[in-house]
Amino acid sequence: MLRIKNWHRLVLALPVCVWPLLSQVDTGVLSGTVTDISGAVIPGAQVEVLNTGTNYRLSRETNPSGLYVSPPLPPGPYRITVSTDGFRTAAKEVSLNLSERIAVDFELEVGSVAESIEVEAIAAILQTETATLSTQRSEQEVKELPNISRNFVDLMRYSSGVVLAQPHNSGLPLSQIRGSTVSSVNGGSVTDNNFVVDGLQNNSNHQGQGVMVFPEIEALEQYRVETSAPDARYGRTGGTLNMGYKSGTNELHGSAFWFTRSDALDARNYFNTGEKTPLSRNMFGGTIGGPLGRKSGSTFFFLSYEGSRTNQDTTNIASVPTALMRTGDFSEVTGRSRIFDPLTSRRNEAGKLIRDPFANNAVPESRFSPQGLAVLRFFPEPTGSGVAANFTTDASNTQGADQGTVKIDRDFPRGSRGFFRLTQGRADFVNGFANILGPIATPFVQVQAPATQIVVSYTQVITPRMINQVRAGFTRENLRAISLNDDRNTAEDFGIPNVNVDEYTTGLSAITAAGYPRIGDNFWNPAILPMNNIQFSDNLEMNVGNHSFRFGFDAVRRHTNGFQTSRPRGAFGFVLRFTNNPAAAKNTGFGLAELLMGKPGNIQLVYMQGTRGMRRTDYAGYFQDDWKVTPRLTLNLGMRYDLLADYPQTEVGDRLIQFDVASGMPAAIGQGNYPWRSGIADDLNNWAPRMGLAYRIGVSIHSGEYFGAWEAGPREGQRQGKARIGEGAARRCRVASLAAFRLQPEKVGE
User: Fold this and answer.
1) Would strands 510-513 and 567-574 be described as parallel, antiparallel, or unpaired?
2) Residue 58: in which H helix or E strand, if any?
3) Hey, which end of the chain has fewer CB within 10 Å, N or C?
C-alpha cells in the first residue's frame, strides 16, 4: 500500500500529464489524406475502418485538411472504405502491425457513390509518419526465424544494432535461468532495455537484466524492436521490445507443435569414452482461438499452452586427490609442487623469509586438521589414473516448464473495446553443470520460477476524435534457488562450527584448493526472491486539425522481498600461501596440503538474517504531438517526465544504511545527513524531450530525430555506492580463524 507521505510525489507527476492519454504500445494507427485527382483535399468524406478478422467497425470523417486518423487499433487486417457525394467509393485493404503508424491515402475519382468498387490490396507500407527506427516481425516470421530455445528475446537479435551481450548460457544470473535476455542495443547498457507485453512492462526487479514472464512464442501476434528515437511514450535509454498476444477472431483457428531432439541422433562427445551422454529435449504446445457464442458476436477467446522437458548430461573432467594424497603423502607431485613446513618460517641473513621442506613431501599425521582431513576425504574417488584430470563424471541438467494463457477480447458499442489476459506458468530446473564433482561433493541447485501476469484494458471512444484507455496489470515471479544437500549439516558433521546456523545454511562451505575444483555448496544460494509489480495507466488521445495529441500517465509499484547473499556458508581458499618457499616460490606449495593442515589463505563470509523488503514506485507522464504539416511532412514532438520515488529503493523495516564519505563510516538513513528513507534524495529533473521528422519523397522516407532519455540506473542487487542493508546490526557476526580452520563466533553490537 502506498504511504500517505508519498502522495505529494503523485501530485507532482500529475500536472505534467495535463490529461491522462493513450499509450499506443500494443496497438497501431491508420491515417491518410483524401484528395481528388487534381490533388485538392476533400473535407467531410466518410471513412469506414473494418477489421476483417473480427468485424470490428468504426467510422470517421475527414477534417477540413482532408485528413483522417483512426483511434488506436489492435494489429490485424483492415479494410478502409472512403465515400462522399460526387465521387466513386474507394476501398483499400492493409495489414496494421504492432506500434505502427502508417498512412493510407486516397485519390477519389468523379462518379456516383453507388458505383461498384474494387478493393485494392496494399502490400507492406513504409512508415511515413514517424522518425522512430524499428524492426517489425509478423506472426509468420516469429514462427519461422531460427530459435532453438524458443526464447522470445532471441528474436530481438535479428534487428540491426542489437547484439548478444552475454554469449554463453553458463554463469548467467539467477533471473536468467529460463534464458538469456541480455542484449546491447546500439552499444547501450544491457540493463536499460524495455520489455513490453500487451502494454505492460515486463522487466524483472532483480538485477535489471531478466524478465518476469516469458511469452509463449506460438501465442505472439507479432513483435517490434524500437532501437532509436522512440517517441515520448517510452522511457529507458536502451531498446524497446514490444510484443502483443494474439486475439481470437470470428473464425475458429488453432495450431499445435512438437519439437524434439535426442542423443540417438548426436555424435559421441570427444571426451566421453563410455556411453553417449543422455540428451532428451521436447518442446510442445498449441493455441486455439475464435468467437465466444455466435460467429457474428463481439466476444472472442484465445488460449495458448507451451511446455518443455529437457534432460541433458554433460561430460566433465576434473582433478581429485589420489589415494596417497588422502593420507598426507604428496610425493607424487614432488617435482612440481614441493611442500614446505610453515612452522619453520624464519628469515635468513639476507632478510628473506625461508622455510624447511617436509620430508618425503608428506605432511605428518600429527599436523592433520580433523576438519581438513574430513573435507579432503569428501572428494570423490578418482575414476582414472594420474594426479590430474583423473575424474570424469556426467553432470545432469533437467528442466520442466509449463505455461498457459487465456485472453478474452470484447468489442463494445460505438467502437469501444476491452480485453483481459491471464498468463500463468512454472519452470523447474536442476542445474548440475557447474558442480563437476557430482551431487554429493558439490550439491546440485534446484531453481523454481513460477510466474503470473494479469492485464485488464478498456478503450473507450468518447467522441470520433477523442479516445481514452485505462489499463491495470499485476505481475508476480517467485524466484527460488536451493541447494539439494538433503538439509544435511555437513560442516557441523566435519567439525567446522558456526556454519550451519539456520535452515538457510545447511550443507558445506565452498572450499577451493589451488589447482582443484570447488567442493561444497554453491555460492549465492539459497535465494528466495518473490517479486510483484503492480501497474496502472490512464491515457487519452485526441485529433485536432492536423495534430494527433497523446497524453499519458503510468505508475508501477515494485515489490521485492528477498533473501540472498553471496557466501551464506562462508568460503575458504587454500592458495599456496603456507606451504610454498617464500624465497623461491616457483614449483613450491600445494593447495591440498594446506587444506589438510587447515591453513586457508582467505576466508569470506557474507550473511544476513531475515528477509529484506525492497520497495519503489515509478511514475511517468508524457505528451506527444504527431503533426502532419503537409501530406508529405510529419513532425513528431514530445516530452516525457520520469519520477522514480524513493530511488533506488526503500526497505520496509528501514534497515538500510548509507556510506558517509566525509566520515568514512556507515550512517543511518532517515536522519542527519541522510533524511530520506532510501538514503538518496529524489531526482526531480528527469525531463526527456523528443523531436523527429519524417518527409516522404516519392517512395523514399527521409527522417531525422533528437531525443533525450533518463537512465533508471542500478536495479535491486546493483546498488554499489548506494544504500545497503545494515547487516552487522541485524545478525550475530561469524568470524573465521585462519589458524584452526574454524569459524569462531564473536558478538558485535547486537
Assistant:
1) parallel
2) strand 57-61
3) N
